[in-house]
Specification:
Elements lengths: L5 H13 L8 E2 H7 L6 H11 L10 E2 L16 H8 L4 E2 L2 E2 L2 H4 L3 H4 L3
Length: about 110
């Protein structure tokens, strides 16, 4: 039996956290990485979300950068699909950035059991 690459396991863990983000809320790549015990792996979380953007079970559109920018928007079909999905959930977005990020921010460290 061959061992799975570590990044696949990390991707699965990142996807599992993303699936816990409540409707109408967002979190950041860094917050997921920190929750997973890999605080310097925000970029790896980004790659995990990119790998999941076509999987409706994983709400990758709810993961933004630490400033609330929709940096993953280019990986969604359509020009503004990521923004549209967030706005459909009631999240206010202006100029490709979450308005009042603190209002919509969901922190896995505070909301999930470690």
């Amino acid at each position: 039996m061959t061992e799975k690459p570590k990044d696949v396991n990390f991707f699965t863990k990142a996807h599992n956290v993303a699936m816990q983000i409540p409707y109408g809320m967002v979190t950041s790549y860094g917050a997921i990485a920190k929750y997973l015990g890999a605080a310097k792996s925000a970029r790896m979380v980004g790659w995990a979300m990119n790998a999941a953007h076509n999987n409706a079970a994983i709400p990758a559109h709810r993961v933004v950068n630490r400033k609330g920018l929709l940096t993953g928007k280019f990986h969604f079909d359509g020009t503004n699909l990521m923004q549209q999905l967030l706005e459909n959930e009631g999240v206010e977005v202006k100029n490709h950035q979450i308005v009042d990020l603190e209002k919509y921010f969901w922190n896995p460290q505070e909301n999930l059991d470690l």
